[in-house]
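Researcher: Here's a chain I'd like modeled. Treat it as a single chain, no partners, no ligands.
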Amino acid sequence: MTRRAPTAIAATIVALCLGCKGQATKATTADTRQPLALPIEAQDAVRAEMNGMLTSINRILVALPRQDTVSIRQAAAASGLATAADPLLEKLLPEQFLTWGTQTHQGFDELAAFVTTTYAPDSVLLRLGAITQRCVTCHATYRLATR
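Model: Modeled as a single isolated chain. C-alpha cells:
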C-alpha cells in the first residue's frame, strides 16, 4: 500500500461516517428512514454517543499513518461497549438500532484488542470499514424525529 492510499481510504471512511446527512438527495424524494421520536434528553444522549464514535474514528485515522498503536488502541477503547448507552435510553430505542449499536461498540473493542497484539494498517482500515458500515446502515435506516 502506498503512503497516499491510507489517506485516500481515510477520506472515504470519514465521508461514509457522515452518512446520510451529507448525501445529496432530490428535493422531491421523501425521507423514508424510520423516525425515532425520543425525548430531547434522549436525542442529546444518542447524538453524544455518535459524536464520541466519530471522534474515535478521527483519532484512529490521524494515528494510523504515524503507526501510533497506543493512540489507536485508546481511541478505539473510548468507543467500546463500556461506553454504550444507559439502560433507560435503551428502553426507548428499537431492537435493530440497539443491535447495530452494540455491534459497533464491540467492533471498537475488537479493534483495540487487535492493535494491542498486531499492527497491520490494512487490517485496521478493514476493521474500521466494518465498523463504519454499521454506522452507514443505521443512518440509512433511522433518523431522529424533530419535535
